[in-house]
Amino acid sequence: MSKLKGQIIRASALFFSAIIANGSGESFSKIENSTLVASDKKSDAEHEHWTYLNYFGWVFTPYISKPHDNGHWNFSTILGWFFEHSDYSPYIYITDIDSWIKPVSTNCTYVWFFEYTTNSFRTPQDLPSKLEVNTHRILQQAKTMMRNTAASIPHTNQFPIYTVGPNWHLVGSWNWTAGFWPGCLWLMYDFSGDEYWRESAEAWTESMTSQKDNTTTHDLGFMMYNSFGQGLRLGVNSDEYSAVLHEAADSLFSRFNTEVGAIRSWSWGDWDAGNRFTVIVDNMMNLELLFWSARERDDPEIQKAAIEHARTTIRDFCRPDGSTVHVVVYNENNGEILEKLTHQGYSDDSTWARGQAWALYGFTTVYRESGLDEFLYQAKANADYYLEHFLDKGVPYWDVDAPVHENTPHDTSAAAIAASGLLELASLCRAEYPGAAKRYSLAAHHIIEALISPQWFAAIPDSNALLAGGTYNQPANHSNTGLIWGDYYLLEALLRYLKPDRIPTSPVHDLPN
Question: Catalytic annotation on 399?
Fold first, then answer.
């Protein structure tokens, strides 16, 4: 090891070495610091030749020598975008269980890299995994992209929904997706602690206030709990945000029909014409708002409605093999099923990828909030179907039965939803079903690795959307775009991966502040 030396070519003469401070021998537990180091761009033409070099390893500082006092080495990490250069040949030392450290020589200079400091460094097991380092790298990049998005929006009463070319299409606070952008801002505040993100999140969240009285939509969970609820979780404006959320819960509860045993979803077009009462599987995601409000106010009626809606969904939407129906239309007067169909899937009998993800995430949440095993069993059934039919390379096609050809759209938003839901499901299964917990956790890691790869992350040219490859509504020819809810659930999944203590390990348990 005394012969290990590597020449580090510094971008813009910037280099930070990471030094192990103690010899306690403790295993790596967390990344304590991360610093983005960027080079100056010499020209746009040169920028076009940057390529991603998929090396992962630990780069030792120049003129390395082993400290005499604690037996640890000075080191820094390098991972990122590289510009190939024939004049330089730095060494990248890759951790390897058999040979411990293996040098790899490559002709390149780095455009940027991240530095990480750990508590100790004795064996490869003490080092963070490639996914952990990559996750920090992606979140740092997301900061820049999200700042650019915030700067591009003229007013805080406008919200990004999907991309048109490189640019975000903006909608008002009435849209079902409006809460995801302030939710993204809250999640970045959670990650960074930077007051910029809190102030931005507060501004866009405030613009959602008027929707608390909106009784025309079932999406108040998406709209209000992902905005006000995230702020409340982080301890911001607790009294004000709680009051708004309770009013929003009352508005959502007003759409509950006791004959059907469910909350009405769509109130547009012909979906509620005559005695038609339409419910979609997506609605499972809005129940968390009701459970929270019922618990905070000790309101058994609202909790009962949320549980009944979930039971109706099990009965009428969930097939025996764990797959799901997208839409069920009832007779609002007696609860009779009029038809089962799809609106955004391939066929009435197929399984729409995002609907399956909504179900596994939604039932996981209902189990956490209710503690009733029936919802854990359903969440596991939905998750098992997803893993069997959609996991594959990480990002699924938009429907399990969609004909596959070179232009068949994927849906990164479905993958992001599933990854976040699987991480929580794994946590809730860990005590009683350790095998399933491990399977769900590994599947979530697999999905995250796919999502943050160059194929999908920051892959829309000149755009600040985090994810490419989102499918909003393929039957309406709306696919291959950035989707704000895909970005939201990606951020949530990344934070759940990095901070597993954010996820409850038993039911009827609030996320910690």
Answer: no
Distances (CA, A) of 177 to 112, 169, 223, 418, 484: 34, 12, 6, 18, 7
Is 1:83 a contact under the CB 8 Å cutoff?
no
pLDDT of residue 127: 53
* Known catalytic membership, residue 126: no
Give the three-class secondary structure for 302: helix
- What are the tens digits of pLDDT across the range 267-278? 999 999 999 999
CA–CA gap between residue 167 and residue 177 (Å, rounded): 17
pTM of the model: 0.81
Among candidate residues 126, 190, 250, 282, the one labeled active-site is 282
Which range, of 30-39, 109-118, 196-205, 206-215, averages the lowest pLDDT?
Answer: 30-39
Q: What is the pLDDT of residue 128?
A: 60
The more confidently predicted of residues 207 and 98 is: 207
Cα separation of 286 and 265, whole Å?
Answer: 10
The Cα 277–Cα 263 span in angstroms is: 9
N-term to C-term CA, the chain: 44
Name the active-site residue from 126, 219, 399, 487.
Answer: 219
Please write the tens of the pLDDT for every residue from 242-282: 999 999 999 999 999 999 999 999 999 999 999 999 999 99
Whole-number pLDDT of residue 507: 78
Q: What pLDDT score does 505 carry?
A: 73
E-strand stretches of 241-376: 256-257, 262-263, 276-280, 327-331, 337-341
Which of these, 231, 238, 292, lies nearest to 508 by C-alpha position?
292
Provide the sign of the torsion angle of the four alpha carbons 83, 87, 90, 94, taken in this order: positive
Q: What are phi and psi of 490, to 5 degrees?
A: -65, -50
DSSP symbols for 426-479: HHHHTTT-HHHHHHHHHHHHHHHHHHTSTTTBT-STT---SB--B-SBGGGTB-
Burial class (CB in 10 A: 0-12, 13-18, 19+), 43: exposed
Q: How crowded is residue 48: how many other Cβ atoms within 10 Å of its Cβ?
A: 7
Partners of 478 in beta bridges: 473
- Give the sign of the dihedral formed by CA 37, CA 39, CA 41, CA 46: negative
The CA distance from 380 to 361, in Å, is: 10
Q: Mind listing the pLDDT tens digit for each residue in 331-357?
A: 999 999 999 999 999 999 999 999 999
The pLDDT assigned to 373 comes to: 97
Helices and strands, number each (H, E), in the chain:
14, 16
The structure tokens 């790298």 sit at 137
